[in-house]
Amino acid sequence: MARDRAKQVAYSKRYLDEHPEQKKKARAQTAAWAKKNRPRMNEYARAYWRKMRKAAIDAYGGVCRCCGEGTYEFLAIDHINGGGNKHHRSLRGRNHLIRLLRQQDYPPGYQVLCHNCNMARGFYGRCPHEGAVSHGRDRRCARVPALRTP
Known about the structure:
The protein has helices at residues 2-18, 20-36, 38-59, 84-91, 96-103, 115-124; strands at 75-79, 110-114, 133-134, 137-138. By secondary structure, it is mainly alpha-helical.
């Protein structure tokens, strides 16, 4: 069946290249359909990216590695060794990291942090929970060594 689909696509492409008036008409029809169905398309895209983001967060543990926060809306993917801003700029898009992680089968080098812990790491160089004992377990941020007291 995939072979038949590939043949159909190749034929359609050839046909439209040979008949520019049909190509123009097809583009106009597609644009009109997209304009008419924009809300439906946007909702589909939002649902798709929510699903992809949840899968990525679940693949890296599903809770903040520092404080244990588990509310999905509060979680973010963090680069363990830093360099996230530079990496995001090189990807040119807000969802490209999620796509890249999925394509690479969720490689090591990333962790889940809540937005508070992630922003604290960026602004202050360490998380406020670092070294704190919570629920009988030591929950340190993975990339931050313990602070030394003088």
